[in-house]
Amino acid sequence: MTTAPERVSDDREGGAERDDASTDADPALSVRGLSKTFGGGDEAVRAVDGVSLDVEPGTVVGVLGPNGAGKTTLIKSILGLVVADEGDVRVAGVDVYDDPRPAYARVGAMLEGARNVYWRLTVRENLEYFAAIGGESPPAVRDRHDALLEQLSLTEKADTPVNDLSRGQKQKVSLACALARDVEVAFLDEPTLGLDVESSVDLRREIRRLADQEDMTIVLSSHDMDVVQEVCDRVVIMNEGEVIADDAVADLIELFRTFAYRVVVGRAEVAAGAGATPREGTVAEVLDDDTRERLRETYGVETFESRGDRTAFEVSLGDPERFYDLMDALRAAGLTVHAVESVDPDLEEVFLELTGGDGSSPTSAADRPDRAVSAEGGDRP
Ligand SMILES: Nc1ncnc2c1ncn2[C@@H]1O[C@H](COP(=O)(O)OP(=O)(O)OP(=O)(O)O)[C@@H](O)[C@H]1O
Fold first, then answer.
1. Measuring CA to CA, how many Å separate 67 from each of 64, 74, 170, 238, 241?
2. Closest Cα to atom 5 of ligand 1
3. Sheet harboring 94-95: ordered strands across?
4. The domain containing residue 280 runs over which residues?
């Protein structure tokens, strides 16, 4: 359907019913042309603007974006908690607007931290409650719940009221409740927000295990770039309601690789040792003026860092082939290369580059001729 869907209150209403019409060939999640505008006239905010994506089973997708980019509205629109203006959403091939019950029977969600769980109930009672409203009886899910509690280091707390748990433990209970029944797709909003290191590690490990061993599809939003880089297979970056990058995490980082290296050099005669006379004077002479100038002009080296008889500099080559030319040039200048390490960007740097630093002046991937990011709907400006 492409018109406004009827509101679906939330996934908890879905029964355990499954739609046999879906096939293995269907993506676990398919979103087509999803849009949502809040307000009207001059005040209108296009929170989600024609977003399309397909997610294969067993994939962990991170949704990133600056504040107000539209991440939450996208996730809530997919879940039917916000009424989209247009677009299609399918879970395992089942249209969530035409057939909400069978579609959402496959979906679990952890939104707004631990606020969705019942603090007076024990951990296990919460799990049983969330399984029951999904149509599964407690005995049928007992083993699943035991395994979840074990994986999240909550076994000893099974009979403790949630109220008496630490913040990290409450958050883990919230994740467990999203997974309390046999779901195929889970949406996790900021799952590691405010967690201590140990709880965060437990949670990250469990997310990866669910994807790798249970073929679960997980869509998570996070402001923590390290979590996304470590846990996600793929990252979708949003800005002003649009998807501006959509790629495998490794490929996206690779795309922004500038083949930058940190090189440490010394004078060849110092390294040669026996009989060689170190050049007089200070470390500044490891590189003579001519060599410095050549490195600046030819390779764009900006700063040199000298310590003892060694000098280090960072060089960005653009083309990996130029690496060998650089090595030849250094040797020709009478230098010995002591160390070379590649200085790759991480996901955070890629994100800042794409969203224009702090996200306030976005740079669309499409504006960058050298950065052909494979965003869905790549025909957008
Ligand atoms: N119920 C609403 N009514 C009016 N405007 C809204 C509503 N919900 C969201 N918006 C607006 O839609 C835009 C997208 O908001 P959204 O919460 O989806 O962004 P986000 O990427 O999740 O941000 P954050 O990282 O800060 O949580 C923002 O400009 C926001 O102010």
1. 9, 13, 25, 10, 11
2. 38
3. 45-55, 29-38, 86-91, 94-95
4. 260-342
**Of 199, 222, 246, which residue sits at a domain end?**
246
For residue 48, is it within any domain? yes
- Ligand 1 binding pocket mutation candidate from 73, 75, 242 (most atoms within 8 A of CB): 73
DSSP label at 181?
A: S
Residue 65 Cβ inside 6 Å of ligand 1? The answer reads: yes
Tell whether 190 is covered by a domain: yes
Task: Report the first-to-last Cα separation within the chain, whole angstroms.
Answer: 25
- Nearest-CA residue for ligand 1 atom 24 is 67
Q: Is residue 355 part of a domain?
A: no
For the Cβ of 109 lying below 6 angstroms from any atom of ligand 1, the answer is no
The one-digit pLDDT tens for each residue of the chain (381 residues) are 443 333 333 333 333 444 445 556 789 999 999 999 999 888 899 999 999 999 999 999 999 988 889 999 999 999 998 999 999 999 989 999 889 888 888 899 988 766 778 889 999 999 999 998 878 888 888 998 999 899 888 999 999 999 999 888 888 899 899 989 889 999 998 888 877 788 888 888 889 999 999 899 999 998 888 888 889 999 999 999 999 999 998 888 877 777 888 999 988 765 444 444 444 444 446 888 889 999 999 988 988 998 888 999 998 887 778 888 899 899 988 899 998 888 877 888 888 888 876 544 333 333 433 443 444 333 322
AA identity, residue 10:
D
Number of structural domains the chain divides into: 2
ipTM given for this complex:
0.98
- Compute how many other C-beta atoms are within 10 angstroms of the C-beta atom of residue 53: 22
